[in-house]
User: Fold this.
Amino acid sequence: MKTIPRSTLLFFGVYLLITIVVQALISLQLLTVFWSKLLLFGAVMAIVSLGLNLIYGFNGQFSLGQWGFYAIGAYAAADVTFRWTQQGSASGLVILLLAVTLAGLAFWGVGWLLRRVPGLDPLSSFALYLAGVILAVMAAVAIGRPLIEPVTSALALLPSNLALQIVFFLAVLLSGVLAAEISYLFGLPVLTLGSDYFGIATLGFTIIVKVLLDNSDTILGFEEMKGARGMIGIPQATTWLWVTIFLLVILVATRNLLHSSHGRAIISVREDELAAKAMGIDVASQKILTFVIGSLYAGLAGALYAHINGFLHPNTFNFIKSFDPMIIVVFGGLGSVSGTVVVSFIWILVLEGFLRQWLPEGFENWRFVVYPLLLIIMMLLRPSGLMGGFELPYLRQILPPLRKNVKAESTAEAQGD
Assistant:
């Protein structure tokens, strides 16, 4: 019988202990609402930064679009739960579920077709995928309308709190999938660009998303989002338990991905694209895969963020804020999962917590001067980041022991020489 490694037991044990202790402090009101929400923000920032670290730190694609997908996840999930709590309707949930499902089928169908038409340029492929997605969304709206009432009635039979938790959980998952599908569509033509140009294109995407959110009540037709005035009435459903569950799942998924053959291929693209291509690795597929998974993380994080304060404003997702996860990834160490998580909590607690408390009244904005200075000092003294190449034992890939016969053969060859 195979025993569970000690590093695995230690990781999950410590994670469970921290979760229980923090939850107890929150339940006993030993932590104020202010500090409790900062911990939630820290976990959310860790999730979105892990997605960027996967794209930039492990795959080597300089991206500033993470904040745009974060915004998409936030507003999509908020719209679903807002319609349920404020309007008593499951319309958002039904339409979003059908939209992401049919869009996924459209991606599969167009991909199957393109495999039989080799040599098609990226823009033509993008046009076909876009047409498929538009048809899928139209079909989702048409199919979903008659289903809204039965689904709403079925959820209404459950206790109100249970129904809200179900709607919230599905909204978070579907918003993450929505962000991933949009990233796949966006990445088809854009990932053909070089790394610097790709970064500029993703920054443009973030700006486009922000402008659309400013006009979401007019251009997009979502009056409940209220455009530049900000969206209110979102249920505060995100709890410490929810964020720790999602963070743990994402940590395990990231660890297993990086230790798989796909993970080795992802890292090889970062190290040398030409060498990876020469070894038979499909570089374009690995870039798309990494970009989609990273955007999925951002969408999930955005959905959780939307339900912390119950309020969303487009200015939260402007392009200046898009540098936050980038700074966290660099500060923690490129390619370090442990560093990203630790620095995410440090970033939130110091920037939004301690510096707000310690700086004199009226000087709160000086914290935006303090942390860049700390970052400059860090880059001068430790350019590899706070954690550098360090990784927690469970997250670090441990090579299997050398087989005895191989070791004996190596010893015999050395003696023969």
Notes: The radius of gyration is 23 Å. Residues 405-410 have pLDDT under 50 and may be disordered. Residues 46-320 form one domain. Residues 122-156 form the longest helix (35 residues).
